[in-house]
Amino acid sequence: MSINAYWMQCGACGGDTMSFLSAENPDAAEVLATAGIDLLWHPSLSNLAPARAQALTDALCSGAIALDVLIVEGALVFGPNGSGGFDLKGGRPKKDIAAELARRARYVIAAGTCAAYGGFGRGEEIDARGLQFTGSEPGGLLEPDFRSGAGLPVINLAGCPVHPAVLRSVLTAVAMDAPIPLDAIQRPADWYGTLVHQGCTRNEYHEYRVEEHEFGEKGCLFFHMGCHGPLVGGPCNKTLWNEHSSKPRAGVPCFGCTDPDFPQHAPFFETRNIEGVPLKLPRGVDRAHYLAYKGMAAAAAPLRLIERKTGV
Amino acid sequence: MSRVICDIPLNRVEGDLEIRVAVEDGGIVEAWSSGTLYRGFENLLTGRAALDALVITPRICGICTTTHLNAAARCLDEVAGIVPPDNAIRLRNIALLVEHVQSDVRQAILMFLVDFANPAYAGRPWFDEASARFAPLAGGSALEAIRETKKILEIIAILGGQWPHSSFMVPGGVTQMPNIAELVACRALIGRFRQWYERQVLGCAVAEWEAVDSLDALEAWREAAPSHGAGDLGWLLRLGTDTGVDRIGAGVDHFLSFGLAEMPRESILRRGAETHVFAAGSVRGGECAPLDGERIGESIAASHYEGYEGLRHPREGITRPRAPDGDHGRYSYSKAPRYAGEPAETGPLAEAVVAGDPLFADWIARRGPSALAREAARLTRPARLLPVIDAWLGELIRHHEEPFIVHPSGMLDGEGAGLINAARGGLGHWAKIECNRIARYQIITPTAWNGSPRDDAGVPGPWEAALIGTPVRDPGNPVEAGHVIRSFDPCLVCTVHAFDPRSGASGTLRLGGG
């Protein structure tokens, strides 16, 4: 039993491909082999001659070859003036090719936030959009009620880039036609149901409100440094990056890259706040209770944390 | 003499590239190169907070993400008037060089050597074995490269949280100092990778390879042991010679390097007053000169931009795209960077030649540049970089208690430049910051240098020049042109303003007639 897949890059940096190549145990080649996925085309890896590559794409677009999985990396570029002329393949807007392929595919996977929601370039001169969303608004390249051959909407694997374990997992699931429960913005709930905050090694700093004010100080990055960990879903601190770490663990705030509105307009390294309390509180938290709790927690903070006498 | 115009779409170049060539008697006589994607990153940065460059510029490129971060951080160091402490320089450099090593190995094996598994070579005696070795996602070397390159990248995650797309380099230093146990883990990862690289790629110890200091020494080394021919380097040299890749793709014979790996003030690698481990400078006709950043300029004469004529320094650069309709003579949204007014090649070969590497200096002096020399410089660069990474990890362990950041005081305001060598060659970021806000941000990527269009004088860019004389035996499968272009390791996603909306049927690229 084998299925095929076609990987397309649109307005992309290649980071989702690089992330996939960083998958470990099983790695990228092993997961394709063990799941039985025949990768018909990948722009960075395939060695089909140009004429044969074009014939393959034509056959998939026309339905002459049935397409199981379409993977799109990068934003769908609509600029200038809705033409898509900023991202062409052989003179044709890539967005048009992506739309044709999507309507033939049994599954459509958006690899990364750009393909899912537009990402960098959304609302800018290139008019970047996602496959089925533009930011958090339903409707992108494809209409909100689009369903692929298997009856699913676009599967949004948000992240800049997508976490390698997420992509690997979803590819394996579609190969076996396993159910993939999705959240309201079409991300697999099994992977985006945790907050980036959950599992962060700096949680104790957050618990006692021991704050980082400048880089390298160690402390919770949420209060001043712009960390989105308690605000957005993602597996980064549960399933680590490159087998080792995550940005917040290394003193870099989470920028909320799994959020449909990423990149936000506000400065990345600042937390907007009212009298020292972040404007956006951890998901679902009541402001009055949070104020009381954090005030007491700060008063209870142990000296070993305040003095950073901890390995974290 | 018949003249035929062919359009060649190329993949395995990180992004999409379309080349138009004029072919006479089976050989390329003129070439025009155009990227087909415009992403508008420079204009997207304008008006944002200065530090946002640390988040946005890495996302220009998923392959050189840490390199863009490094250039942005150095640019902002200069704006802040800070020289980061030695430990910060070591940590930044280690991440930069690890990224280079993975890029060199992945590009050489997954993107360049795979062309020897192209059906165009089906009749060669080595074809079956080459296919078993290099076929995408199946060949033995391809699987090994995928398996091992991700492991060395674990070092960047230990230092900076994740790869790709972290932002752990900040003005004045880095966001954390790993503990001793983590640094020891990094050394173990380097040691492991080095063992693999020696076994799989070189076929000998790094120390033995370091003694190969001339073309004669290279020939002797190839014959010295069967393992030297059995590694991926041995395959590259053998197949490259057999297919004539050593005789195509000469280019412009003008090499530019921004210098690789800024030297900490104290380091066992320091010999004197050098600023980099591998020196910055240019080499023209064998003559080496120190780098002068003021000699960089960009032309837009053949690009879809407006606003000036002649060359303009990126400090005053503007990115004002114009509608291509009726834009005769303009065929690319890539600007044309020039050094001292001329096109220049940048990348591992240029870096080796400028730094005075004896093997590649001898190779260029005796045979001139070629696609094979370029690719061999790339595949062997890890042999030069791995010992450097290891030395700095040792220094970090010895100097562990010393600072890793100096905080800027007050607001970021002023101009700065960050010039470094990316895996693919010289990368420059130039920023003007006003009260913590980005007023101007200009970037020149290595691929803009190598893949540039013509300038005001009509002079072609390096790989446009390198294609001349390259045979095209089958226009539907132009494997020879692929070797030449891929030897430059193009990264089109990085060409932040590359764009040609009229390629294909419109005919505006038919500058050579046809």
Task: List strands and helices in order, with pairings.
The complex is a heterodimer of chains A (312) and B (514).
Chain A: E1 3-9, H1 15-21, H2 28-35, E2 37-41, H3 50-62, E3 69-73, E4 76-77, E5 88-89, E6 92-93, H4 94-102, E7 107-111, H5 113-117, E8 128-129, E9 133-134, E10 137-138, E11 155-157, H6 164-175, H7 189-192, H8 203-207, E12 273-274, E13 277-278, H9 287-300, H10 303-306
Parallel strand pairs in A: 1-2, 1-3, 3-7, 7-11
Antiparallel strand pairs in A: 4-8, 5-6, 9-10, 12-13
Chain B: E1 3-10, E2 17-24, E3 27-35, H1 41-45, H2 53-56, H3 65-80, H4 86-112, H5 127-134, H6 140-152, H7 154-160, E4 169-170, E5 173-174, H8 180-202, H9 206-210, H10 215-224, H11 226-230, H12 232-242, E6 254-257, E7 260-262, E8 276-278, E9 281-284, E10 287-289, E11 296-299, E12 336-339, H13 348-354, H14 358-367, H15 371-398, E13 414-422, E14 425-434, E15 437-444, H16 446-450, H17 462-466, H18 479-486
Antiparallel strand pairs in B: 1-2, 2-3, 4-5, 6-9, 7-8, 9-10, 11-12, 13-14, 14-15
Helix pairs in contact in B: 4-6, 4-7, 4-15, 6-8, 7-8, 8-15, 12-15, 13-14, 13-15
Task: Give an overview of the whole structure.
The complex is a heterodimer of chains A (312) and B (514). Chain A is 26% helix and 13% strand. Chain A is of the alpha/beta class. Chain A folds into two domains: 188 residues, NADH:ubiquinone oxidoreductase-like, 20kDa subunit (Rossmann fold, 3-Layer(aba) Sandwich), CATH 3.40.50; 119 residues, Cytochrome-c3 Hydrogenase, Chain A, domain 2 (Irregular). A five-stranded parallel sheet of chain A has the order 2-1-3-7-11, with helices on both faces. In chain A, helix 1 crosses helix 6 and helix 2 packs parallel to helix 6. With 514 residues, chain B is an alpha+beta fold. Helix content of chain B is 38%, strand content 16%. Chain B is built from 18 helices and 15 strands. Chain B has a three-stranded antiparallel sheet. A three-stranded antiparallel sheet of chain B has the order 6-9-10. In chain B, strands 13-14-15 form a three-stranded antiparallel sheet. The longest helix of chain B is centred in the C-terminal third of the chain and has 28 residues. The N and C termini of chain B lie close together (12 Å). The relative contact order of chain B is 0.21. The C terminus of chain B is likely disordered. Chains A and B meet through helix 1, helix 2, helix 3 and strand 5 of A and strand 1, helix 1, helix 2, helix 4 and helix 6 of B.
